[in-house]
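Record format v2
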Amino acid sequence: MEALITLLPGDGIGPEVTAAAHRVLKEVATRFEHNFEFDVQLIGGSAIDATGEPLPEDTVASCERSDAVFLGAVGGPKWSDPNAAVRPEQGLLNLRSVLGVYANLRPVKVIDELISASPLKPEILDGVDMIVVRELTGGIYFGEKIREATFATDVCRYQTDEIERIVRMAARLAEGRRGKLCSVDKANVLETSRLWRDVTSRLLRDEFPRIEVETLLVDAAAMHLLKRPRDFDVIVTENMFGDILTDEASMLVGSLGMLPSASLGDSRRGLYEPIHGSAPDIAGQGIANPCGAIASAALLLRHSLGLNAEANAIEAAITSALAGGARTADIAETGLGHASTTEMVDRIVSALREVE
Ligand code: NAD
């Protein structure tokens, strides 16, 4: 297969983990005889430094030409002045809008070898394998905002079609998995949640009658995620609830550095990035965990290029490297040595060469 992939390394550890994903994608291309072309472009703080813009025109043009976009991370103290006219995060928000991606998929799968890295008890974590689908372009983050001297308002707004498209995407994912979908809202208090619940119940009843549906209030969902995480297959929820629940869910796996994400819309082209930020505290030290970025490359192959076997091979290689004892500092057991980013990638690439 021929494919053009835009790489946006960004800031902080972004370039380090993007280099890791790039190396693994090149290895996949060799092993499975594909022709991947890569176009590296600027985004975020490094783009502001070079061009004055967090999302330069050349970057937009490259993303629009490409089959998929991979992002490292954006942001950092250098660009975080609250009074700054341009900020790195604007680049990411604009990129999501340019690409029309409205669903953020975050798979949370506990790897046996890392159970000890999580603060939760092993018996709760065994067999956890879920995907959280978060609405990405609506809700309170995007509604009207007012700030006066003594009051402030954030408007939360949702339209029926915004709810339908994300619930449909989540239900299709559930059909390809264990057939269970949990919708999370706050319908006892919020009008937007009552709309969410009405639309979700009707759509699932009419279009996906075979799916097993559970509905939870967000406060209860936060508790059930820690009490019985194994029961969840696909969770779908609105923007802010998804933001909070996915950070909570990342702790099931032990480190922010482990988790991948895919942002998808109606076209096949998606945006793929590890869920962590630019981690300025460890940038440039060569110790960042590249697993979330490499697992995001697997999602890119699966969702944008339809290369399932290749995606499975990457995921198996990550598990195999971990099973062989490879650990970056964030997931290493106290007192034991750990691998650098490059050494971790070496272990994953050699495991990839051996995966059946
Ligand atoms: P962060 O995710 O960058 O870091 C939180 C903690 O996790 C830090 O201690 C960091 O060292 C550690 N960590 C993160 N990724 C790791 C990895 N791969 N390996 C090992 N350890 C890792 O969050 P933060 O510190 O709140 O934010 C730093 C900057 O990143 C801010 O400017 C923020 O706006 C930005 N940010 C960007 C994105 C994005 O680009 N999508 C997401 C979140 C935060």
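Residues 1-101+259-356 form a domain with the Isopropylmalate Dehydrogenase fold (CATH 3.40.718.10).
The mean pLDDT is 94.
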